[in-house]
Amino acid sequence: MAVEELTNINSLINRIDPRVKIIEVFFFSIVVAVSNSLPVLLSALIISLGIILTAGIPAREIFRRLVPVNIMIIFLWFFLPFTTEGKSLFNIGSLAVTHEGLIYACRISIKSNAMMLMLISLIASTPIFTLGHAILELKMPKKLVHLFFFTYRYIHVMDKEYVRLINAIKMRGFRPGTNLHTYRTFAYIVGMLLIKSFDRMQRVRNAMLCRGFKGNFYTIRNFSFKKIDAISVALMIVIIMLLGIMEWTEIT
Amino acid sequence: MHISEGVLSPAILTGGAALTAIGVGIGLKCIDYEEIPYMGILTAGFFVASLIHLPVGPSSVHLILNGMLGLILGWKAFPAILVGLALQALLFQFGGITTLGINTLNMALPAVTCYYLFGWGVKKSSGRLVFIITAFAAGCCAVLFAGILVGLSLYLNGKAFLPAAKLLVAVHLPVMLIEGILTATCALFLRKVRPDILDGLYV
Question: Which residue of A has its CA nearest to B163?
Fold first, then answer.
């Protein structure tokens, strides 16, 4: 499992308070999700591109992370231009491509990429554990956030267990194919993974109780609202207002 | 199947998020504070298992395992799936912030439904045949319902999405069969090795 964090880059948005970043990305995403006019979406895309460029992430990495979103978008491109009702522009075979359909598909593509770029610049500038502490401070249910912490902490452990199982079956000459034997083997692997996680969680829980776990996680780093945060909030409010006004004037 | 950011209309996103919030609320109520480490490690186990790719002909499918998750966790599947999807968005950029609600609903609601429909049969005390059939049905139906829900959320977006939605449901059909076989075999394995897991003693 290739999960690497991009957080050691020393950039401007790295220094913004994680709580502020989460709120900003959240509201930006909502505004983009609600907007419908092409100029608004295009400017949102340009803004998010600008923000991600200041984060100092290598371009290749950005492209790699944009792939999953665009798979679904490409899938929709096969349908929307043909199935949306409207005035037809030209024909491919017997299917008519409509003007409305093309615009609709464009809108969705720009929307999702703009939102994704913002999300990537958030993740790339904040470690996941810090994100967890930040959403706890933002009054998300404590149980849920702790579940998040434990899951993230143990994903890597369980992945190692999985790799061990896979290596074991490979050493015994297992070759996956489309047959019942393969499916049964994988079912046993899933079962084994679950059993291993049950056993491990029992040990971990006992160990934590022995050490006086009271249901709190402590962090050395305290969040504080600094000058840079105030500036970023002001900027984000201006951006959101501008996008909102553009969208509004477009409608009326 | 994750729905990407920006595809769905705000009304569907809000509706999905609201229903997911209710489900997660019920799920969290069922979880004792002491159980959190339990749940976390189990969720991590499911997270890793859902990344397994199985060969199907020339291509491959990845497991969803929401049937299995529902059988073992019941309502607690909601928070578990929410956390799993949030991590998938953060680590791999599958899905995103605004679609987290609707994507969780599409996976977790079938899990809970299958728990109520078939959970009675997947116990260590039930007969072997009943056990196999209910486990298979749980795995199958969880994926089928998830496919239908994903298709439905696309369709509610506008009529133009109908062919895409139909294709998505159709694509889920072979996955459904594999997932059913896998859930049944895996549940049988658990019954042999650690039967108490299925009776919900741990969680």
Answer: A79
Beta carbons of B90 and A78 less than 8 Å apart? no
Distance between the two ends of chain A, CA-based, in angstroms? 49
CA distance linking residue B112 with residue B131, whole number of Å: 18
Q: Please, what are the domains in chain B?
A: 10-198 (1.10.1760.20)
Residues of A in contact with B186 (CB under 8 A): 187-188, 190-191, 194
Percentage of residues in chain A having pLDDT higher than 90: 26
Cα four-point dihedral sign B143, B149, B151, B154: negative
Q: How many CB atoms lie within 10 A of CB B146?
A: 27
Residue A149 lies in a domain: yes
Window B:25-84, CB contacts with A under 8 Å: 28, 31, 33-34, 36-49, 51-52, 54-57, 63, 65, 68, 72, 79-80, 82-84
Nearest CA in chain B to A111: B6
Total domains present in chain A: 2
A186, B54: Cβ pair inside 8 Å? yes
**Token couple for A234:** 């002001």
Question: What is the reported pTM?
Answer: 0.90
Answer for the pair B127, B191: CB distance below 8 angstroms, yes or no. no
Q: Which two tokens stand for residue A82?
A: 């043909």
Query: Measured in whole angstroms, how far is the alpha carbon of residue A214 from the centre of its chain?
Result: 31
B11 touches chain A (CB under 8 A): no
Range of A169's domain? Answer: 141-210
- With CB atoms and an 8 Å threshold, state whether A155 touches B2: no
Cα(A148)–Cα(A161) distance, integer angstroms = 20
Q: How far is CA B63 from CA A73, A185, B171, in A?
A: 22, 14, 14
Contact A147 B93 (CB under 8 A): no
Looking at the fold, whether A96 and A199 belong to one and the same domain comes out as: no
Q: How far apart are CA B179 and CA B177, in angstroms?
A: 5
Q: What percent of chain A has pLDDT over 70?
A: 95
Cβ pair A193, A161 in contact under 8 A: yes
- Which helix (H) or strand (E) element contains residue B18? helix B10-30
Query: Three-state SS for A212?
Result: coil
Tokens in use for B44?
A: 């991590």
pLDDT band at B203 (very low <50, low <70, confident <90, very high): very low
